[in-house]
Structure formats: C-alpha cells, structure tokens
C-alpha cells in the first residue's frame, strides 16, 4: 500500500458482492493503508476481485452482524478503522477530508460519522432525504463492535464525542425494489430471532396499529416524500420491513409457547 495514506484499516464484510466490491475497494484505497475483506463463503468472484485489487482476504463463516465485525477488527493492522459494507463507496471529497483529519495529527476525538447518501439503481443521489449519519471511522482502542448476532452498531462510551463529517459515503443499497424487499425480509428475520421478545400485548399492538405509523415516520419525518414515486415506494418497503419484524416476533412467541412443557 502507498505510504502517503493515513494509518487506517478499512474492513469490509462480503458475501457474493462481485457487483459492488471493486468500486468499494478502489474508493477505500484512496484513504486506507490497507483493505481487509472478511468473506463468509461467496460463490461468485468476490474473493478473486478483492485479491486482484490487493486486499487482504480472510474467510469466516457468518457469525452474526456484530461478531463478524469483531472478527474483522482483529484482522486489521491499524487501530484506526473504517467500517464499510460492500455496497458503500467513499466519495473523493470524503477521502480528502479523512486524510486531512488522520494523517499528520492526532484526531480530536475517537469516533467520526460521515453521512450516508442513498443512490438509486439509476444513479440518482438522494441528498435531500434518507441521509443518515453512521459511526464509520473510529479508534478500536476506544470502542469495538458489539458482540451480538443481530446488532453491529456500537454503544458510544461515556465521555466520548462523536463528530459528524461533512462529505458522504454513497450507498448503493439496492439493485431494484425486489432486491430491497428481499433485504428487508432477511434483516427482519435476523432481528426478530436474535433480539429479546417484548411482551405479547406489545407485539400484538404493533402488528395491528403500527404499520401506518412506520410508513409515516419514513415518508414524512425522514423526508421520503421528496423522492416522488420512488420515495413513496421506498418508504412503503422500509416500513413493511419494520412491521415484518413484529410479525416474526409473534411467530417466535408462538413457537416458544408450543415448545414449552404443558
């Protein structure tokens, strides 16, 4: 790796990401002195592409969201880490911002959150809605990914400031709406399975009453109405995915009751 890059390790979890992985790695190499790939059994060309581009590649069967990140953290050579999914691409402006921050000085805090800008399959950047700040750049001596199968976002330690960065990561989250719906189905299954069950009355109330509330939260509060028809469709799919978690929790509750001794 080039010596003029700051001492940052970028780690990326992959599974059949040949469509995205090249642009993700090439963008990350503009700011990280190494790129670490943790692959959970890809059957496409993900691993071959990553090796060709000079990434360090490790194979690890899927351990769960947080556990997989922990495995990746341990494979990194540097203490400053950049956490990317394979469908996330560092913009040139963000790379410049991070290099200036980390290269020749001690950063003033240990956690930085760039904005994530959703990019449609047609290449439209949704900069006026659906923007979320994520804690992507951090010092692992201060904070680590949670040891959890469902959750992978760490808890901010007491007294540690999180600073927002100005420039964005472009998020190519879905190749079409069917793909987005499939992702929501998988995420809802994992979170319903791996998180604590709320009370039965709470689950039932959410199933009956909360679907329209989930939609309004996305469509109005998070600004998806600015995206026209596609924004409406995205809000509908995301709210349905959140509602599916409630339904699957109810199924899990029923299965737990059926398995209990009579």
Sum this structure up briefly.
With about 260 residues, this protein is α/β, with parallel strands linked by helices.
Chain-wise SSE layout:
Elements: E1 8-14, H1 21-28, E2 34-39, H2 46-52, E3 56-59, H3 65-75, E4 80-85, E5 88-90, H4 92-102, E6 111-113, E7 115-119, E8 125-126, E9 132-133, E10 137-139, E11 162-164, E12 169-171, H5 177-194, H6 200-221, H7 228-259
Parallel strand pairs: 1-2, 1-4, 2-3, 6-11, 7-12
Antiparallel strand pairs: 4-10, 5-12, 6-10, 7-8, 7-9
Helix pairs in contact: 5-7, 6-7
Percent of residues in beta strands:
15-25%
Q: Oligomeric form of this entry?
A: single chain
What is the general shape?
globular
Helix fraction?
40-55%
Low-confidence spans: none
> How many β-strand runs?
12
Order of helices and strands: EHEHEHEEHEEEEEEEHHH
Structure description:
The protein has a 7-stranded mixed beta sheet, sandwiched between helices. The radius of gyration is 20 Å and the shape is globular. The mean pLDDT is 94. It is 42% helix and 18% strand. With 262 residues, it is α/β, with parallel strands linked by helices. The protein is built from 7 helices and 12 strands. The longest helix has 32 residues, at 228-259. It has helices at residues 21-28, 46-52, 65-75, 92-102, 177-194, 200-221, 228-259; strands at 8-14, 34-39, 56-59, 80-85, 88-90, 111-113, 115-119, 125-126, 132-133, 137-139, 162-164, 169-171. Helix 6 runs antiparallel to helix 7 (228-259). A hairpin with a 5-residue loop joins strand 7 and strand 8 (125-126). The N and C termini lie far apart (63 Å).
